[in-house]
What we know:
single chain, alpha/beta, globular, binds S-adenosylmethionine
Amino acid sequence: MKSIAKLPKPKVSERMKIFVDHGIDQLPYWDFCCDHGYIGIHALKSERFSEVHFVDQIPHIIERLQALFAQSDKVKPEYKYFFHIAAGEDLITKVEGNCLIAGVGGTTIKVILETLSQKDLLHAKRLLLSPHLDEHILNPFMESFNDRYKLMEKIEIPEGKRVRPLYIYDRT
Ligand SMILES: C[S@@+](CC[C@H](N)C(=O)[O-])C[C@H]1O[C@@H](n2cnc3c(N)ncnc32)[C@H](O)[C@@H]1O
């Protein structure tokens, strides 16, 4: 008998929980550079957000997630979720609500935010940014962006032997 695939039981680390815990309820949640999709899946299962968007530039990553969702018996009919095979900066959809970009370098985060902003697609109320390198590139850029987004909090998240930053910016 063919078994029904389960949505991957996300290996939700403390880091990922913190990303979701700090989202604003009832708004969309965008998981940029989603890779395994664990963060977005955790956000979806929390049922706190109006919809969840998964974005990754690698087609097979998103296709794998699409296949898992299509086969899973754990996806409730009321869940609203969207998949985007695109580099974040190439999106053509308005980004609203919560915008998480985690696990990539500060340069990538800067390119995504700068390009979406130039295209007038960046309308997120909250940015949750967790660069894994190049903070010295991201931070001056975010300072130049402070007429639009204000730094509310920086959280230091221990992960193994490392400490990962989470910068939370809210729209002014
Ligand atoms: C290390 S994983 C991060 C996974 C997850 N966000 C996390 O923090 O655990 C990096 C992912 O970012 C994706 N990526 C890198 N640059 C990107 C871009 N400009 N737009 C969309 N996805 C990108 C890669 O394809 C890869 O799947």
